[in-house]
Amino acid sequence: MPSYIVTLKDDATPEQIAxxxxxAKEQGGTIGHxxxxxxxxxxxxxEDSVQTLNSIxxxxxxxxxxxxFAIRNAQYAADMKCILNPLRLPKPLKAPSSSILTFALRRxxxxxxxxxxxxxxxxxxxxxxxxxxxxxxxxxxxRQPIHLLSLADLVKHGRPPLSAEALLSSARFxxxxxxxxxxxxxxxxxxxxxxxxxxxxxxxIYNNYQHSLSTLLPWQGxxxxxxxxxxxxxxxxxxxxxxxxxxxxxxxxxxxxxxxxISATEVTRFLDEHLRARIGTRLVAEQHIALHxxxxxxxxxxxxxxxCPENPSYIGVIDTALRPAATVNSCGEFVADICELNYGVRPxxxxxxxxxxATTFAFVPMHLEYIVTELLKNAFRATVENGMxxxxxxxxxAPEPPASRTNRPDAQLSLPAxxxxxxxxDAIAPLDDNAPxxxxxxxxxxxxxxxxxxxxVWGYSFxxxxxxxxxxxxGGGGGDDALGAISAVNSGSxxxxxxxxxxxxxxxYAEYFGGGIEVQSLYGWGTDVYLRLKGVGxxx
Length: 540
Prior knowledge:
3 domains, Butyryl-CoA Dehydrogenase, subunit A, domain 3
């Protein structure tokens, strides 16, 4: 039976919502889920039924449930066609339809970063390409060192709109980095045991990396010297970003299925390294895509496949005046909604630290949003489950005084060896030591962390799974296991519980640009989490 997601206008009145539901029922529909984060509901009809929901006053959009990804991909393809020669033939770019926002909110509400196989399915069925078939350039490229990436690299081309020469320079810089990065990941996958790489999920990722490298290799032998080349190259980057959206959940599911053939230590090392490599690769590609779109005439932020706000403080995907207090409050509202849905209790939080609203620094908003969301999930959940929901979670934002770095040794989070990545993941480069950073402390009264568990909070261990769990993805006895939790997200789990992978993923984002996370637990009382972030300094 066909189901539809009905989204009403933002200013729709309760009477209009009730009228829409009434008409849907009169047409033979059955009301299903009703959404709280947006005005809308799901309705199911019998086969061959005719519905006229679009004509109802107050209805903004009617979307066939189950085809949201097809709608999104079709819109994405249409948007990419719209950028053919945008710098020579300025035309208003079409903003994404409201159905995309509808699905994005529904998708986020049900499971943060919920993955989908839709964007890669057409490539995942392709068999492995032989070395003779594609020339196998990966080994030669993988022998080249990875560029030490920093935030300064990503903002060096200036503020948008960029000149034609600056845009071409950004494209050439991006092209110089990505093939080598992809080749390193292909070689890392090849170095896994054959029985592991033969797993369908891991094989999908391997094929995706092979395909992405093959689309970039033809560009290596040429110079991006005109705007037409830059436009076509941007299309290739947009496809690459889309292809690798769900890499981590798919890999986690594959390793979960292969846990009998590879040790937990090897899985932790591979996933941790792959995560950091993926952060850099995706950031490089998304930065150029955002610079491209923000440099086009009649700039439409909604037309970009990557976040690209129309704000003078943004350089691509980097906000040079990011306000961490605003991010904390936004993420707090989101996590509180989830907590209220699952527990019926809405935790409270307080932001302090001098004048937190005045604190700004240059950083990637998407990264900070992910880190803060995961840390607040842990704090809110512990607070509620420990019966301390009357005690607010206290978030302290402490900007580092610029002069302090010249008067004393560089302040670093002192983490025990087992709490840090014991490898040079993706050759992380430190930033300018004179750039002031920000430390965020999240303090909860959730009872703390059991000392027996504390040493393992950074790992992707899956030793708690039993043989009885072989047929599950991400459920059963492994609910608190990090690897199983990642796989559970891929299966549509909507619970706030079981998201134990948040700490290692958040640590990867924080450490990538020289920051870090430290956890201090007072068992029986609560937990303090210190998030240290290093900015890029003042950007003219």
